[in-house]
TrEMBL record, chain A:
It comes from Marichromatium gracile (Chromatium gracile). SMART domains: NADH_4Fe-4S. The keyword Phosphoprotein does not apply. PROSITE patterns: COMPLEX1_51K_2. One of its GO terms (molecular function) is NADH dehydrogenase (ubiquinone) activity. Residues 448-493 form the NADH-ubiquinone oxidoreductase 51kDa subunit iron-sulphur binding domain. This is NADH-quinone oxidoreductase subunit F. Keywords: 4Fe-4S, Iron, Iron-sulfur, Metal-binding.
UniProtKB/TrEMBL annotation, chain B:
[2Fe-2S] cluster binds at residues 90, 95, 131, 135. This is NADH-quinone oxidoreductase subunit E. It comes from Marichromatium gracile (Chromatium gracile). The keyword Protein biosynthesis does not apply. Keywords: 2Fe-2S, Homeobox, Iron, Iron-sulfur, Metal-binding. It holds the Pfam family 2Fe-2S_thioredx.
Automatic annotation (TrEMBL), chain C:
Residues 89-128 form the 4Fe-4S His(Cys)3-ligated-type domain. Residues 11-89 form the 2Fe-2S ferredoxin-type domain. GO terms for molecular function: 2 iron, 2 sulfur cluster binding; 4 iron, 4 sulfur cluster binding; DNA binding; metal ion binding; NADH dehydrogenase (ubiquinone) activity; oxidoreductase activity. InterPro entries: 2Fe-2S_ferredoxin-like_sf, 2Fe-2S_ferredoxin-type, 4Fe4S_Fe-S-bd, 4Fe4S_Fe_S_CS, NAD-red_Hydgase_HoxS_gsu, NADH_UbQ_OxRdtase_75kDa_su_CS, NADH_UbQ_OxRdtase_ferredoxin, NADH_UbQ_OxRdtase_Gsu_4Fe4S-bd. It comes from the Bacteria. Composed of 13 different subunits. Subunits NuoCD, E, F, and G constitute the peripheral sector of the complex. It comes from Marichromatium gracile (Chromatium gracile). This is NADH-quinone oxidoreductase subunit G. Its cofactor is [2Fe-2S] cluster; [4Fe-4S] cluster.
Length: 536, 180, 243
């Protein structure tokens, strides 16, 4: 297949879709599904049965504003989310009204959710560009919006070295937490001597309060497959694994379906786009172990072992799965690849800040008006995200702190909300970008309690291999319990701080090394909350 | 030198073993298929009993202690049968901040059951999960596979009571064989 | 039979450990080289002849120019590297780690058959652990005395996995493994059943000899009588895996 054939195919699909006057898109991502969007979809489908030329009802992926679900968008085929008419908190009983109102220039007032509000207009969607527009189970929908054109272009018009150059010049950094330069990682694997190599997609999104990767997999799975295949071409790998949490059944289902369809259409398998390049993807399910997000533990798990990390080096790029060179990136990183190949590395590098390029998807949650999924350019100020896009605290309360980076991150106090969100600024504040969870807390939240919560998390998720993480997290948790209950004194606070230092410095893997971060960051900004509870 | 290793016979004529065997065959009986195979046992039987673990160990030629080590490392694998209904309370950060602890306390008080346990009458298993990804609906729980969100403790208890009274959910399939 | 011809090309590198100039093959780890030159590096999981595990973190050393500490058992020597093995900071960390181990389970030296011959006890003395700043974890574990020759007391186990590795790598039985996760980890024989019922154990006793504490001991020993003998390990390892 050539690029022209694919473009023609896309044009044909778009032309066919354009014959329909109205497209009714019902969010079928996990959050809206759990508030009943399935029944809404059924009711709408029943209302336009048989599907006429004038109206098509389809299930789509995440539209972002999860707290207002079920969300239904009425649009013309090809319209973006912001150009559509959005309805919120839709019940199945609202279906007739929505269908009756189709031709009306005025929306239904009681359900209307304006898309000209900052939550929608202040975002910049690259990873989520097609999320909420296309049916994730339809390969045609993906192709219509340009799916797989970057892969076919890379295979037919670019050499692996040229792909590497685009990815390197884009300045993309790993979206899983560490922020390692993606181009450098790819080049390292590419430079390893030939033979078997692997590409692994880390979809073991485990940070509590984070659901970016789930949304991408549920909304636009083909984009991840395409990114992985391009990576395989660039580094010389013929086999890929997606390691996905078993707790995400919907994502697993859609990904399985997408892999099958991509294979049938020739975007996976041997001789893709009539070239010598072949690439297969297999799914591996996690089984409830947070530590498997750590790359060496993840590889152990793919190999059927206990998910325990091993010392690095050797890094996976050198000796990964079964000792072979292995490229591991997370879902969002792979989801950025197709646009980078399509638009060029320089285009991507023009977005964001000096050290952090492109956009970042965040899961906004906690005490905030608009909870859901957003994508903003790197460098957007925290205050802008929380007050403008997130709509601030319900009832007009004050933000006390924002937690980023999950159990490996820290709390940013109100005084620092002016900080631009990028890898380096957040690090300077004692937290990390992490995978993108952003939990907003108001004045009622106790910071000691937040630290205790995350320490409990790390304690129960510790794999048990190394002493500082296994026993240190447990002692720190016990100390935090005692401080929270106002039973501890200065000596215990001092011991807590020392344990933080030891566990951070001596733990084997990232889980242990970063486990003290929530304590250290709350001690840094909210020390008085600890001290006010001491008994001596 | 190669020692011939015969595949063990299926533990019983329960057809679900064929599903398990199919997973192993698809992976060429390679030892790295262990977790995939345990998933397929749990999908078929609801939990992993000793018979199943021994069968998988023998089929994949993985040491028994290794199989047991893997089965107990991952929290999703259950070594005991589930209750007739399950309620998974999400304890992710967003749910925690919005009161997941209250839900757990309510279940504890009303059903005398700790997270990870099943009530004495086998009616209800209570579990906790690290974020079910429904942060927009916090606090959330998964009741018999269905996510329910924005829950007050009373609403959750009422919903669970309805389940038990409605008896609509089918009982779990009978176990293949008692553990050896 | 391996031919004599092909010598793998391994370079020899020179580096400094605690102001002492040393040389070693580049495929050697820091701990191997230090032990060879009698530079003491504490460790409870590392044992010559077994694969490196990297769990006890007591062998952490400082490498000049590297922000993070490195575990000597899993760090290869590099040309020109400068290593410090015994700084004040490292001594403090080691003391805390040993203390954490003591607090994790009910280690009571005065009633232990390994008293006086225990690697954990010796290390505690060397690190200067003379009191405990943290409470003991109040969980008690069973003793399995079912085996006719050996006994396992989980209260004295530090989860170093030497028994697991020697059983798998040297004996080839893989009777031992670890179950559970985090602090709930426990070493098990077969399906966590009594040792005597194990179908795979050959009763060779290697696990007992490599155990650094009184967790795995011979039956019939009383307080202070259990002395371990590990001299067999490097010999067996060499014969099984000729370099």
């Amino acid at each position: 297949m050539h690029l022209d054939d694919l473009a023609e195919q896309a044009a044909t699909i778009r032309a066919r879709d354009a014959e329909t006057e109205h497209e009714i898109r019902v969010c079928m991502a996990a959050s809206c599904q759990s508030s009943g969007s399935g029944q809404v979809l059924d009711a709408l489908r029943a209302g336009v049965e048989p599907q006429t030329q004038s109206c098509r009802v389809k299930g789509v992926g995440c539209m972002g504003l999860c707290s207002a679900g079920p969300l239904v968008a009425v649009a013309a085929p090809g319209d973006t989310l912001n150009a559509s008419r959005l309805y919120r908190d839709v019940a199945p009983t609202d279906a007739p009204a929505i269908l009756d109102n189709l031709g009306n220039p005025e929306p239904i007032e009681r359900l209307h959710c304006p898309t000209d509000q900052p939550f929608f207009t202040a975002q910049h969607r690259i990873v989520l560009e097609h999320s909420g527009r296309i049916d994730p189970d339809s390969l045609d929908d993906a192709i219509a919006v340009g799916g797989y054109s970057a892969l076919v272009r890379a295979l037919t018009e670019l050499t692996p070295a040229e792909v590497l150059r685009e990815v390197t010049s884009s300045g993309l950094r790993g979206r899983g937490g560490g922020g390692y330069p993606t181009g450098l990682k790819w080049s390292t694997v590419a430079k390893m001597p030939g033979g078997q190599k692997y590409v692994v997609c880390n979809a073991d999104e485990g940070d509590p309060g984070a659901f970016m990767d789930r949304a991408v997999l549920e909304s636009d799975p083909h984009r991840v497959i395409e990114g992985m295949a391009i990576a395989g071409y660039a580094v010389g790998a013929s086999k890929g694994y997606v390691y996905v949490r078993a707790e995400y059944p919907l994502a697993v289902e859609r990904l399985t379906n997408a892999i099958r369809k991509a294979k049938r259409a020739g975007f996976l398998g041997s001789q893709i786009a009539d070239t010598q390049f072949g690439f297969e993807i297999e799914l591996r399910l996690g089984a409830g172990a947070f530590v498997c997000g750590e790359e060496t533990a993840l590889m152990a798990s793919i190999q059927g072992l206990r998910g325990q990390p091993r010392p690095r080096p050797p890094y996976p790029a050198e000796a990964g799965l079964w000792g072979c060179p292995t490229l591991i990136n997370n879902v969002e990183t792979f989801a950025n690849i197709a646009p980078i190949v399509r638009e060029g590395g320089d285009w991507f590098a023009a977005l964001g800040t000096e050290g952090s390029k492109g956009t970042k998807v965040f899961a906004l949650a906690g005490t905030i008006v608009n909870t859901g999924l957003i994508e903003v350019p790197m460098g957007t100020r925290l205050a802008h995200i929380i007050e403008v896009i997130g709509g601030g605290i319900p009832g007009g309360g004050r933000v006390k702190a924002v937690q980023t980076g999950g159990p490996s991150g820290g709390c940013i106090p109100r005084a620092h909300l002016d900080t631009p969100v990028d890898y380096d600024s957040l690090k300077g504040l004692g937290t990390i970008m992490g995978s993108g969870g952003m939990i907003v807390m108001d004045e009622r939240s106790s910071m000691v309690d937040v630290a205790r919560y995350f320490m409990e998390f790390c304690m129960t998720e510790s794999c048990g291999k190394c002493v500082p993480c296994r026993t240190g997290t447990q002692q720190m948790h016990a100390l935090l319990e005692r401080i929270a209950a106002a039973e501890a004194g200065r000596a215990e606070l001092a011991l807590l701080e020392e344990l933080c230092e030891v566990v951070q410095a001596t733990s084997l893997c990232g889980l242990g090394q970063t486990a003290p971060n929530p304590v250290l960051s709350t001690l840094r900004y909210f020390r008085d909350e600890y001290e006010s509870r001491l008994v001596d | 030198m190669s020692l011939h290793r015969p595949k063990p016979p299926l533990p019983s004529d329960d057809t679900r073993w064929k599903l398990v065997n199919a997973t192993m065959r698809r992976n060429g009986y390679a030892d790295h298929a262990l977790i995939e195979t345990l998933h397929s046992v749990q999908d078929a039987f609801g939990f992993l009993d000793e018979t199943a673990l021994r069968f998988v160990a023998a089929s994949l030629d993985v040491p028994l202690s290794k199989v047991f080590g893997v089965a107990t490392f991952y929290h999703l694998f259950r070594l005991k049968p589930k209750g007739r209904h399950t309620c998974v309370v999400c304890t992710g950060t967003a749910c925690y901040i919005k009161g997941a602890g209250v839900l757990v306390d309510a279940l504890r008080a009303h059903h005398q059951v700790e997270p990870g346990e099943t009530t004495a009458d086998g009616a209800l298993s209570v579990l906790t999960a690290r974020c079910v990804g429904a942060c927009g609906l916090a606090p959330a729980a998964v009741v018999d596979g269905e996510v329910v969100g924005k829950l007050a403790p009373e609403a959750l208890l009422e919903r669970l009571d309805q389940l038990e009274h409605a008896k609509t959910a089918p009982a779990p399939p009978p176990r293949a064989r008692a553990p050896a | 039979m391996p031919g004599p011809a092909s010598q793998p090309k391994v370079r020899v590198v020179t580096f400094r450990v605690d102001d002492q100039d040393l040389s070693a093959r580049e495929d050697e780890t820091l701990i191997e080289v230090c032990r060879e030159h009698r530079i003491p590096i504490p460790s409870l999981c590392y044992l010559e002849g077994l694969s490196a595990w990297g769990g006890c973190r007591l062998c952490m050393v400082e490498i000049v120019g590297q922000p993070r500490l490195a575990a000597a058992c899993s760090t290869r020597v590099v040309e020109g590297m400068e290593v410090h093995t015994d700084t004040e900071r490292l001594r403090r960390y080691r003391r805390t780690l040993v203390e954490l181990l003591f607090a994790e389970r009910a280690h009571v030296c005065s009633v232990c058959v390994s008293n006086g011959h225990c690697e954990l006890q010796t290390l505690a003395q060397r690190c200067g652990v003379d009191h405990m700043r943290m409470p003991r974890r109040a969980v008690s574990y069973p003793v399995d005395s079912s085996h006719e020759m050996f006994r396992v007391d989980h209260d004295r186990c530090i989860l170093c996995t030497r028994c697991v590795r020697v059983c798998d790598e040297i004996e080839g039985a893989h009777t031992w493994d670890v179950m559970g996760r985090g602090s709930d980890c426990r070493v098990i024989t077969d399906m966590a059943q009594p040792w005597a019922e194990s179908e795979t154990c050959t009763s060779c006793g290697k696990c007992v000899q490599v155990c650094p504490t009184g967790a795995l001991v011979k039956q019939g020993t009383s307080v202070g009588e259990m002395v371990k003998d590990q001299h067999f390990l490097p010999i067996l390892a060499r014969r099984r895996h000729p370099r």
